[in-house]
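Moderator note: this is an archived Q&A kept for reference. The question asked for a predicted structure of one protein chain; the sequence and the answer are reproduced below.
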Amino acid sequence: PFDVENEIWGSLAYGDLDLDGMNEIIIPSKNKHLYALNLNGILFDFEAGQFLMGTPAIGNLDEDDFLEVVVSGYTSSGDIFIVNHDATSNIIEIDEKALGGVALADFDGDNIDEIIIATESNDMLCMVSHEGAIDTLFIADDKFKVSPSVLDMDNEKIIMVGSHDNNFYAF
């Protein structure tokens, strides 16, 4: 067992962040920490300073070969955290509460993933670049409480998400 000292609301993620051939288990916790564990122990313990309730996503959000973990904070001034394998991070201030996790996909063909997030504060579905540019794609009639998904069919990407307004959206 690994004690995270608080509740775990999001699902775990799994991937080889540091390219050593050994996958890490990524655990978000309500104790405001994001953990990466492997067979040797803790790869990193990242303190976000915000509740981490959603499922983390793993993708490529910079120019190096290593993978990054993306997780959103659950506070009224919530941020998006992009965490590298060595626990260094890039923090994007979105000032939105997001209960669900994020989805990642390369929408512009530059081999760097964009972040798709659905928020609870202002009922928004947004695309966020790794540099922090925020593009509001849609505003629902009620809050989003789940993670969006991205379906890639024949290089056409479709963003899917359900809302508390009883609707399922696909863009």
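Archived answer notes: The chain has a mean pLDDT of 94.
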